[in-house]
Design a protein that fits this description.
This protein is an alpha+beta fold. It has helices spanning 22-29, 34-38, 115-120, 122-146, and strands at 10-18, 47-50, 53-56, 61-68, 71-76, 88-97, 102-111. It has a single domain, classed as START domain (Alpha-D-Glucose-1,6-Bisphosphate, Chain A, domain 4, 2-Layer Sandwich).
């Protein structure tokens, strides 16, 4: 993707360990319905459709642009989103581990809209992402460690 001069890509990362096998964590995260289980209720996320693209109730459209065992990337399809929160979103998911424990790594590149005004909200956006990914880590651990997801 080409960026206009002055455009700034921001990054955010989240890393946590879950006491569950790499295969189990991979199976959980590659089932798109996992998002409904690990997203905070206040977001009201519901997967509406999946094909080449993933469509959520809030009209977030994304597409898996890279997929191989233990790593995949989803990217927001900007042209198909109504009033998107971000003007760019690329989310890399990496899973490392063995039969006992898995490290879940999320690397995100994002751009806020509105140029200079958007840049003023960079730290706010990162704080919101940190809260979201802390919730996701806790929910994943609860589901895969305590309830033994199958």
């Amino acid at each position: 993707m080409l960026w206009e001069e002055g455009t700034e890509i921001n990054s955010f990362s989240s890393i946590f360990d879950v006491h569950s096998s790499l295969e189990t964590v991979w199976a959980f995260y590659t089932n798109i319905r996992h998002l409904e289980k690990i997203t905070p209720p206040y977001i009201s996320l519901r997967v509406l459709d999946t094909s080449e693209k993933i469509i959520f109730r809030n009209k977030w459209h994304s597409k898996i642009t890279f997929f191989k065992p233990f790593r995949y990337v989803d990217e927001m399809i900007t042209s198909e989103n109504e009033k998107p929160i971000f003007s760019h979103w690329k989310h890399e998911h990496i899973f490392e581990g063995d039969e006992m424990q898995t490290r879940v790594i999320d690397n995100i590149q994002f751009e806020l809209p509105l140029g200079v005004i958007g840049r003023l909200f960079r730290q706010y956006a990162k704080a919101k992402l940190r809260n979201l990914f802390n919730y996701r880590a806790a929910a994943t651990k609860r589901l895969l460690e305590q309830e033994r997801y199958i």
